[in-house]
Amino acid sequence: MPVPPAPAPSPGSAVQDGPPRIGLLGIMQPLYDDMIPGITEHQARYASRVAERLSGIAEWTVAPPVRGREDAERAVREFEEAGLDGVLVVMLTYGPSLRVTRALSGSRLPLALANIQPEAAVSASWDMDDMTYNQGIHGAQDTANALVRAQVPFEVVTGDWESPEFGERVGRWARAARAVCALRRLRVGVFGYPMNGMGDARVDETSLLRVVGPEVHVIAPGALHRTMAGLPGEAVRDLMSWEDSVFEVDGRLSEEEREDHARMQLGIELLLEESGCGAYSTHFDAIGEDGRFTRLPMAAASTLMAKGYGFAGEGDVLAASIVYAGHRLAGDGHFTEMYAMDFPGDSILMSHMGEGNWRLAREDEPVRLIKRPLGIGGLADPPTLLFRYRPGPATLASLVALGGDRFRLVVAEGEVLDGAELPALEMPYGSFRPDSGVQGCMDAWLRAGGTHHMVMNTGRRAQDWQVLCRLTGIEYVPV
After folding, report:
1. Of 461, 479, 477, 475, the residue nearest 176 (C-alpha)
2. Within a domain: residue 87?
3. Residue 64, C-beta contacts closer than 8 angstroms, at least 6 positions apart
4. Is the same domain home to 179 and 208?
5. Cα→Cα distances 41→45, 64, 126, 131, 320, Å
6. Is residue 299 within 8 Å of 261, Cβ to Cβ?
7. For site-directed labelling of 375, which of 26, 34, 64, 451 has its Cα 20 to 30 A away?
8. Are residues 240 and 173 in the same domain?
């Protein structure tokens, strides 16, 4: 389904298209120049071949071969200035670690060490030149040791650089690196205040900023009210017309209801763009008790998620951040929660009050924009997008604040079932069957402190989340 075009995104705002942007840092040293004239140029061509082989998974910037500390620091600085998402380190020959330790340990870019060599097999035809070209393994050991001692997180990918498996693993790291950088640039807008008494969403904002990256930005409800009032009528009509072309619109919805909803959606997005926020959270009481609003922005959350914004209800900054990371890591992050367990079906009913990324909707049923009564918030009926989740493999992830600088990611893989409709349920929903079964999954989820808000992505994404955790120092707990 198409989504309306977004304004040009500011750093950290809605998801930007395109592959991860990665720098390739090839390391060697001048020791072999006299022994093998032209070795630097020879190995530079090898680095270029590696980047060309991986061109389908990332956009590559290949630095000239690094032969000393100044080369390394200049190359990494240029990667950072170019706004790249990560650095893939490749040993072109043995390179002493102390010449690159400062550059790598001081960089904010996620790192991966590609433990590869030009030739996949040792051959009887090799001479000393071939031995030198293919001796990167002990440079990788030296450099990895330095990074471990410096407590710098990094990923390792060992393998034949021409194999599909190597490309798949580098692609997984590159996507995780992009998500990590996006989190470090992220601002999460909170409209009003968090839900009183809800403890698993509370977090020390300083620790969140320092360890994970997101900055919390409070937006007053009054700013939303003023922005809504100032929107041009043409923009409101354009959004309503677009909804008519994409959704099955409930005929019971009045023009007034739809216009008010459209103004809320456009107002929220405009405020997010102006404040550089790529994710946000609203709490129904913060909207309902304000006194100036007619209804809650349910459908707005669904379409803004479909456009790439992170979202969570009830002022939950942790969940909004991980939904945003889900967009960047795996595509189409979806905010949800576990509503009820179905023991006979060994599954869990997933839903929330009315928000959900409709890009995860079944393809054989229309997404409906409905008139929907809702007692929560004490306001008028909020237009809501109703759909069932698309059946197939799926992954849940919950970001947990453990206190201080300790964070944990609880991850469950499983299947969204092709189950029966629930006609009385007027909000996005689906049944998730964990691979470990309801009992095993929930026992482990609760022991790990998994929160009640989470992100869902289609596909089996646990390994992607695991790499992200290795790059950030977040504890990874599969359940």
Report:
1. 461
2. yes
3. 44, 71, 75
4. no
5. 6, 9, 20, 17, 47
6. yes
7. 451
8. no
Choose one of 183, 208, 232: the last residue of a domain: 183
CATH at 327? 3.20.14
CATH number at residue 124: 3.40.50.10940
> pLDDT tens per residue, the chain (479 residues)?
444 444 333 333 445 568 999 999 999 998 888 899 999 999 999 999 999 999 999 999 999 999 999 999 999 999 999 999 999 999 999 988 989 999 999 999 999 999 999 999 999 999 999 999 999 999 999 999 999 999 999 999 999 999 999 999 999 999 999 999 999 999 999 998 777 888 888 999 999 999 999 999 999 999 999 999 999 999 999 999 999 999 999 999 999 999 999 999 999 999 999 999 999 999 888 888 888 999 999 999 999 999 999 999 999 999 999 999 999 999 999 999 999 999 999 999 999 999 999 999 999 999 999 999 887 878 999 999 999 999 999 999 999 999 999 999 999 999 999 999 999 999 999 999 999 999 999 999 999 999 999 999 999 999 999 999 999 999 999 99
The full DSSP string for 420-475 is ---TT--S-EEEEEETTHHHHHHHHHHHTT--S-EEEEES--HHHHHHHHHHHT-E
Any residues with CB less than 8 A from the CB of 199 and at least 6 apart, and which?
Answer: none
Cβ atoms 344, 222 nearer than 8 A? no
- The dihedral region occupied by 147, where left means phi > 0, alpha psi between -120 and 50, and beta the remainder, is alpha
Largest Cα span, the chain: 83
CB 231 within 8 A of CB 267: yes
- DSSP, res 359: G
- Planar angle of CA 414, 419, 423, nearest 5 degrees: 130
User: What is residue 215's three-state secondary structure?
Assistant: strand
Q: Are residues 417 and 474 in the same domain?
A: yes
Considering the domain architecture, whether residues 285 and 150 belong to the same structural domain is answered as no
Quote the tokens at residue 373: 């009564």
Q: Are residues 165 and 53 in the same domain?
A: yes
What residues are paired with 368 via a beta bridge? Answer: 248, 386
Distance CA 48, CA 331 (A): 29
5 CB-near residues (< 8 Å, 6+ apart):
none
> 30 lies in which domain range?
21-183
